[in-house]
Amino acid sequence: MDLFIKLLPNLVNGTKITLFVFSVTLIISYPLSFLLTFLQSLKNKYLNFILKIYIAVERGTPLLLQLMFVYFGLPYFNITLDRMSAVIVAFVLNYTAYFIEINRGGIEAIDKGQFEACKVLGYSKIDTYKLIVIPQALKITLPSVSNEVLSLVKDTSLVYILGVTEVLKVGRTAVNYYATAIPFIYVGIIYLVITYVFARLLKQLEKRLTYYD
Amino acid sequence: MTDILVVNNLKKAYQSNVVLNDINVVVKDQEIVSLMGTSGIGKSTLLRCINKLETIDSGEISIKGIAITDKNYQEQIGLVFQNYNLFPHLSVLENLIQPLLIKKIDKETAIKKADELLAKLNILDKKLAYPNQLSGGQKQRVAICRACMLNPKLLCFDEPTSALDAASIEDVKKTIKELSNDMAILIVTHDENFARAVSTRIIKMQDANTLN
Questions:
Q1: Which residues of A are less than 8 Å from B79 in CB distance?
Q2: What's the pLDDT score for residue B28?
């Protein structure tokens, strides 16, 4: 208990960083993915080619490598970011790519008749997406999005590579300093609590969206 | 009676497969015209061309003199899909008013119009329900209301009886006859009994370029 009290301020600070990286990534990448999915639907071959390459790179390389590239590699191209900005850029780019693929699957699952109804009723392409397609795709993709959200919570631990002190790094430092594995248990409990809370929230959201099943 | 729908020399092909060749159709005001023919003959393609769901290769289509290329064309026409294609995440009322709201028509006017139509089709009590809470016949009535929200000059039906029981078929016959007082009606159907009972004229499609 003494150890827990000693570690508490650092664990709280580490958890704040974890939650910060998590929430900023989610708040930027999820809406951005819909914008890019919409652009993808315009079927511009140049734009789609660029998006294809982007998605292939983001999904085909480890997030850890992407983090290192953004922080250590971009300065070679005269782009220098501080640690936290590099973390956010790398995470947003990575998660947006995954969300685009999830959205695409969701949109493909929507009945073609919905698009035809929009056309006949005079909806513009943007209105079709904003008012009809995205609300339905949100529901279809929510289970996959939930998985990504929970992965994101755990992926935040990768930011240690850039020297950002999130909750796992606090635990590792404490393990080395106090020569005991107990801090790992505290860190594990913190991750469990965070993922449990988000899993519950997302489950509730899924339930709320059953109103038109 | 004035001409509402005029189709002149319409041609539509999918690669080398000519589906519609030199098709001419006229539907006059207050007419109920049924378009019949065997499966794959091209009647649904014709309906889709008229509703701008397919591009045409050549020919002209107009409604009350407004050409298919005119930006106001779409407002002249309503379509009731075979599967109704209601938006499942929107209530009946929202399904009806949203197409008007996106055209910047004020919400009060849109709701008033929706209430009138729902009352006329005897489904006002379902206005807050979602499509999944409605029977097939009720869904069709909502789809008819939605197609009529912008006061089209021509209302099209794609296989209106395919998913209905006998009682609902009687209802839709009555509804179509009532609606024909205000607009022209074009129906694509396989159901000859229905076509005979409801139509003022039946067009039989025999092949890609023959209409009788």
A1: 120
A2: 94
Question: Is the CB of residue A40 less than 8 Å from the CB of residue A51?
Answer: yes
DSSP at B127: T
> Cβ–Cβ of B132/A212 closer than 8 Å?
yes
- What is the ipTM for the molecules in this complex? 0.92
What is the share, in percent, of chain A residues with pLDDT greater than 90?
A: 92
CA distance B130 to chain A (A): 6
Chain B residues near residue A131 by CB distance under 8 angstroms: 98, 102
Report which of residues A3 and B1 the model is more confident about.
Answer: A3
Q: What confidence tens digit (pLDDT) does each residue in B22-37 have?
A: 889 999 999 999 999 8
Q: What count of CB pairs under 8 Å joins A to B?
A: 50
CB contact under 8 A, A122 and B102: yes
3-state helix, strand, coil in chain A (%, to 5): 90, 0, 10
- CA distance readout (Å), B63 to B25, B27, B73, B143, B153: 12, 9, 7, 21, 7
**The pLDDT of residue B209 is above 70:** no
One-letter amino acid at B186 equals L
**A21 Cβ contact partners less than 8 Å away, ≥ 6 residues apart:** A87, A88, A91, A156, A159, A164, A166
Which of left, alpha, beta for B12 (phi over 0: left; psi -120 to 50: alpha)? Answer: beta
